[in-house]
Amino acid sequence: MTILAVTGWGGMLGQAMTREIPPAQLRLLDWRLLEGGGAAACEAFAVLQPDWVIHCAAHTDVEQAERDPDTDYRANVALPARLAELCAQAGAGLVHVSSTGCYGAWKDTPYVETDRGQPTTVHHRHKLAGEQAVRQSGCRHIIVRTGWLFGGDAAGPKNFVWKRIIEARQTAQMASDTSQRGVPTNCTDLARQIVHLIEAGGQGLYNATAGGSASRYDYVAEIVRLAQIECRVVPGPAFPRLAPVSPNETAINQRLDDEGMNLMRDWRDGLADYVADLLEAERCNG
Fold first, then answer.
1. If DSSP codes are grouped into helix, strand and coil, which group holds residue 84?
2. Which one is predicted more confidently, 109 or 33?
3. What's the CA gap between 261 and 256, in Å, rounded?
4. DSSP for 60-119?
5. CA pair distance 121, 129, nearest whole angstrom
6. Over the stretch 173-196, which tens digit does the pLDDT of each residue have?
7. Residues with Cβ < 8 Å from 209, sequence gap 6 or more?
8. Smallest Cα–Cα separation from 29: which of 11, 45, 17?
9. Cβ contacts of residue 47 below 8 Å, gap of 6+?
10. What are the structural domains of the chain?
């Protein structure tokens, strides 16, 4: 039986991972025990004895990373580096979740795994450095680049989909950015893909986003349509940002396709299921 330990189990992706892994195989690994390394980190591994660690914990505030790069570095470079070293020492594999933002802004078409990384923000430079640390550790690893994740409970502080539903219910018209493109990706779909990669013996770097692509405007308009709200979504300008985020964060799952392992659905299908779940939960909660 393969033992899978998950970090960041309280976040969107971490919650989805814990639902996808059978209880007998699931272990929870507190990333705070790993920060300082040393005896506490080694003891955590000794107790859990994981075959694979799925590292979902991360600092994801792209704007805050520009103001406080040290915090972002500790979370996205130093922490995965320590975790990778522990995995190498214990003979465990590591799934490291990264970002399609690592590719940067040098293409107008979707990125593939063989494209160079040329990130434009502090956060994405750190994500790329975290990937490099995992490779250099020598541990067995799978690096998954994804983006525009959605999922989790409505009350989640970063629940973009639910916030747009609430906003649309309170106004007759809302504007959304047409200039930035990415791939809205259901966390549950990504969790299933990660488990499948482990089971199928995947290794190295994979893009793992939903199928298709969308602008922020497309994304918001589809949320409002699926929620059946009488609100007009209109094209709007990009909102001011401190972080120079790439206007193109789209990607194609080329390696998953080539190796016959791509389970990721079109973004609209994943979003339709998620909006339906949110609305059903709202009805059940009164």
1. helix
2. 109
3. 5
4. --HHHHHH-HHHHHIIIIIHHHHHHHHHHHHT-EEEEEEEGGGGBSS-SS-B-TTSPPB-
5. 12
6. 999 999 999 999 999 999 999 999
7. 100, 145, 146, 147, 148, 183, 185, 250, 251, 253, 264, 267
8. 45
9. none
10. 4-150+184-212+245-265 (3.40.50.720)
Q: What is the rounded distance in angstroms from the CA atom of residue 8 to the CA atom of residue 28?
A: 9
Contact 274, 150 (CB under 8 A): yes
Of 215, 228, 198, 213, nearest to 25 by C-alpha is 198
- What does the DSSP assignment read for 118-163? B--SHHHHHHHHHHHHHHHHT--EEEEEE-SEE-S-TT-TT-HHHH
Report residue 263: phi and psi, to 5°.
-100, 0
**Taking the mean position of all CA atoms in its chain, how far away is CA 72?**
16
**Rounded alpha-carbon distances, angstroms, from residue 253 to 37, 72, 75:** 34, 27, 26
Pairing type for strands 185-186 and 149-150 reads parallel
Question: 3-state class of 6 per DSSP?
Answer: strand
Residue tagged 């791939």 (tokens): 183
**Paired tokens of 264:** 């990721």
Angstrom distances, CA of residue 160 to CA of 17, 22, 43, 107? 19, 28, 37, 26
pLDDT for residue 41: 77
Q: Which of 253, 264, 211, 213 is nearest to 113 (CA)?
A: 253
Reported as a single tens digit per residue, the pLDDT across 209-228 is: 999 999 999 999 999 999 99
Distance CA 201, CA 186 (A): 23
Report pLDDT for 152.
92
pLDDT higher than threshold 70 for residue 38: no
With beta carbons less than 8 A apart as the criterion, state whether 87 and 53 touch.
yes
SS3 (DSSP) at 269: helix
Burial of 147 (0-12, 13-18, 19+ CB in 10 A): buried
Rounded CA-CA distance 9/105 in Å is 31
Nearest to 227 by CA among 169, 171, 270: 169
